[in-house]
Structures are given as structure tokens and as C-alpha cells.
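User: My instructor asked us to take a sequence, write out its structure as C-alpha cells, and then describe one feature of it. I'm not sure where to start. Here is the sequence I was given:
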Amino acid sequence: MKLIDEFPDIDKYGIFSGDINQDGTIDASDVSETDNDAYSSASGYVRTDVTGDDFVDAGDVSIVDNNAFNSVSVVTP
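Assistant: Let's start with the prediction itself. The C-alpha cells for your sequence are:
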């Protein structure tokens, strides 16, 4: 979980979607895998379906691409 917003007395935490290969970084390899599954119209319970709607489509690609562009990665102690 990552702190995504801070208000007085209220902290908001969230989890970023898109680390498809579970290497701790959302990058071009994650985008590529999601693009490939979207192009081949993958469906069902697949790891590239980050929206959870049982279809890999432009919505999934958009989420992974945006998080890759923003260099989202895991921060550990």
C-alpha cells in the first residue's frame, strides 16, 4: 500500500495496478504483455486484466501504460 493523499487527520492509501510480471516495477515489459493480450482479445481470469472485467482491452492497457509512464515501483525498507 502506498500513501496517495494526505489530509489533516485522514490518510488515504492505495495499490497501483499493472505490475504484471511481479518484478516490483511497472515498466515496458508489463505494457508489452498487456498490449499483446489486448491485441489477441484475451479473456477470463488472466493477470493482464487489471480492471477485473474478464477482458483485456484498452482500459487495461491505459492503466498499465499510465503507471509505467509515471515510473511506479515498489519501495521497501
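For the description part of your assignment, you could build on this observation: The chain is about 30% helix and 15% strand. Try explaining in your own words what that tells you about the chain.
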